[in-house]
Amino acid sequence: MNISKNNIITKLFLASALAFSIPALQAQEILSLKKCIETGLENNYSIRISRNEQKVAENNMTPGNAGILPTVDLNAGYSGSVNNTQQYPSDGSAVVNSQNLYNSTLQAGINLNWTVFDGFKMFVSYDKLREMNQMGELHTRLNIENFIAGISAEYFNYVQQQIRLKNLKSAVRLSKERLRIVEARYNIGSMSRLDLQQARVDFNADSSRLIRQQEVVFSSAVKLNTLMAVPEVDKKLIVADSTIMFNALLSKDELWSSTVSSNVFLQLAEKEKTLSLLDLKASQSKNYPYVRLNAGYNYTQNNYEIATYTRQDNLGPNFGVTLGFNIFDGMNRVREQRNARIQTENKQLAMEELQLSLKSDFANLWMAYRNNMELTALEKENLFNAKENYDIAIDRYKLGDLSGIELREAQNSLLEAEERLVQAEYNTKLCEISLLQISANMNEFVK
Fold first, then answer.
1. pLDDT score, position 20
2. Contact 82, 99 (CB under 8 A)
3. Is residue 333 one of the residues assigned to a domain?
4. I want to staple 122 with a disulfide (CB 3.0 to 4.6 A). Which of 67, 263, 328, 348 is the partner?
5. What is the average pLDDT score of the chain?
6. pLDDT tens column, 410-434
7. Burial of 225 (0-12, 13-18, 19+ CB in 10 A)
């Protein structure tokens, strides 16, 4: 009678909780993977910092920063002096002493300086700024690709943990049903107290696993909210996916072709090699002479207390051309060019090593992708058999033809089959994400 009363109270409590939770569920937004990515791309701090750094590189790409344009300076100044002067006439007459003579100079002008030719170094500098700007774009793209891969993996990890939570809830229900049967039989004397205690132990063990899994789900939700830069990191999430679906039709040849042509690491390595070649050209610019122009328009006023003239004004333009060539610099020019050639060779070797590494990573990812798809198919079959096996076991258990230990084994086999299946599906999805990332196809997740 007490058991029946407790069941009624429990059902009423669950019904009330469900009634209150339905409006909240209806009001809460259902998040798809695309929505998570879009929110994260807009709010994530690392992405925003990367975009600002790209803007800095873009702002630096100007002819003036490369030294191509002239500089124009406007200046003005005033200076003065106070002196005691003794003048000795050549005719031997008396010395003339002057005390506290104040002389001053006032000047103002505008001046232009322009390096017309420096052995093409200024043009090489501009090319370097352009390459660095493009590298900034590639680094931003790399951060975005890493972010999309990371948030996609965490999104499907959250789906995976929700599936595990659902499986554990099912396991608790099965254990509860077994406990109900054992309690009923114990009350009529057809089962021992040992059977009852074992059923309770198994029920509590499943309940404990369920509680721990709720913590795992919560942690995954917090991480997903953090990646999206949501202020309420502990906000509950409702995602659109309840299963882990993966693309089983990826083409190995197409993915590898895309990797060779579009992988961001390869493109960054190519830019590094280009910068090394530009450094060599910049060093070779010292093999040429340089030409510099200067021009200006100045006004100067000099004031004298003792002189033939008390004031002198100068107003007019000035200009000049400088042609120069470094004949000997201690062999530093030769040394710099040799080192630049070695650095260029090293960048080429690094790029070839990266190509080999990418080829190795791609091969491993493709093998893991194919194997996990086969494992998923196998685990689906195993899960079907495990469910059928448990159905047979519970029917036999209800008839008293099967022990509690054997029923528990069938239940554990079912839970393990569910666990292996969701793990295989998740691993396959991770391989798919990695293959799309290495081949620069992460836009597939935002279509």
1. 41
2. no
3. yes
4. 67
5. 89
6. 999 999 999 999 999 999 999 999 9
7. buried
Output the domain CATH number for residue 433: 1.20.1600.10
- Examine residue 340 and state whether it is found in any structural domain, yes or no: yes
Residue pointed to by tokens 């030409």: 291
Structure tokens, 349: 């070797």
Concatenating the DSSP letter of every residue in 208-277 gives: HHHHHHHHHHHHHHHHHHHHTT-S-TT---EES-SS----TT--HHHHHHHHHHH-HHHHHHHHHHHHHH
Angle at 411 between CA 371 and CA 159, to 5 degrees: 50
Identify the burial level of 300 via C-beta atoms within 10 angstroms of its C-beta, where 0-12 means exposed, 13-18 middle and 19 or more buried. Answer: middle
DSSP state of 399: T
Termini Cα distance of the chain: 58
Task: Name the pairing type of β-strands 238-239 and 290-303.
Answer: unpaired
Task: Give the number of other Cβ atoms within 10 Å of residue 129's Cβ.
Answer: 19
Q: Are 157 and 227 in contact (CB under 8 A)?
A: no
Cα 282 to Cα 271: distance, rounded to the nearest angstrom: 16
Which residues on adjacent β-strands are paired with residue 37?
A: none
Q: What is the span of the domain harbouring residue 164? A: 24-61+118-289+325-442
Asked if the structure places residue 106 within a domain, the reply is no
- The total number of residues shown for the chain amounts to 447
**Residue 99 C-beta-side C-alpha neighbours within 13 Å:** 0
Task: Answer yes or no: are the C-beta atoms of 131 and 169 closer than 8 Å.
Answer: no
Residue 307 DSSP class: S
**Residue 318: inside a domain:** no
Go through 267-282 and write b for each residue having 16 or more CB atoms within 10 A of its CB, e for each that does not.
Answer: bbbbbbbbbbbbbbbb
- Retrieve residue 128's tokens: 């370097």
The pLDDT-based confidence of 27 (bands split at 50, 70, 90) is: low
Beta strands in 88-142 (DSSP E): 96-117
Domains: count for the chain:
1
